[in-house]
Amino acid sequence: MSEVLDQLYSTILQRIREKPEGSYTVELWRKGKGYVARKVGEESVEVVVASLSEGKERTVSEIADLLYHMLVLMAMNDISPEEVYAEIRRRMR
Asked: Pick from 18, 21, 6, 43: which is nearest to 51 by CA?
């Protein structure tokens, strides 16, 4: 899983750096950290709702949306996935 997240994070950084036309990532970046933070909150609620009443397929889709928006927010805060992995490893001890 970490390989996929690392790859997505790299793509997010690339999009922010290069700002290609029509990129949703660039649109989020331009709207700012507060907007992206609210999107993370919104996606979190959608994960909860899907897990309680919309089935596995919809829950998987919402979790993917949440992970993407969290990675965008991480990039905006200069937090790498490796920093998060290190914190998780520390907590597993």
From this structure: 43
Length of the chain: 93
Locus of tokens 């790859």: 7
- Contact between residue 2 and residue 81 where contact means Cβ atoms under 8 Å apart: yes
- Rounded CA separation 11/17 (Å): 10
Q: Which long-range contacts (CB under 8 A, 24 or more apart) does 18-23 make?
A: none
Under 8 Å between Cβ of 60 and 50: no
pLDDT in tens, 12-51: 999 999 999 999 999 999 999 999 999 999 999 999 999 9
Count CB neighbours of 64 within 10 A.
Answer: 13
- Position 59: which residue type? T
Residue 32, CA atoms < 13 Å, CB-side half-sphere: 2
CA distances to 28, 40, 89, 93 from 35, rounded to whole Å, are: 7, 9, 30, 35
Tokens for 50?
């899907």
